[in-house]
Design a protein that fits this description.
Blueprint lengths: L7 H11 L5 H17 L3 H20 L4 H11 L4 H15 L5 E2 L5 E2 L1
Antiparallel strand pairs: 1-2
Length: 112
């Protein structure tokens, strides 16, 4: 099995640095947003990218807030046959995320 650069710990630490005021409620809103984007993905590549975002958001829910919804979402992703591709996409997405400027919108959801 391939070793991935990003995991719950690395993503959680990044989130603490970038979003010091992040709350559980804000992160749940972000998860809802990302799941909607998964449902609208128009092709397999886009679907994998959106599931990578779900992985990242879920990692924060589990690692930072210790909420079962985060662990459940991660387990759900692990059941996909494409799980390794999702993780590879999460690694790639985090390279980009680490370079972005982020802000929190009026709905309490962070965006780049």
């Amino acid at each position: 099995m391939k070793k991935h650069k990003e995991n719950v710990v690395t993503i959680t630490e990044w989130s603490k640095d970038v979003f010091p005021d992040l709350t559980y409620e804000m992160q749940i809103k972000k998860l809802e947003e990302e799941l909607r984007e998964v449902s609208r993905a128009e092709n397999t590549d886009r679907w994998l990218e959106e599931l990578a975002d779900v992985y990242i958001v879920s990692a924060i829910l589990w690692g930072r807030f210790e909420r079962k919804i985060g662990r459940m979402s991660l387990s759900w992703l692990e059941d996909f046959p494409e799980y390794q591709k999702i993780r590879e996409s999460a690694d790639s997405k985090m390279i980009i995320n680490r370079k972005r400027d982020w802000h929190i919108n009026q709905n309490g959801v962070y965006h780049h």
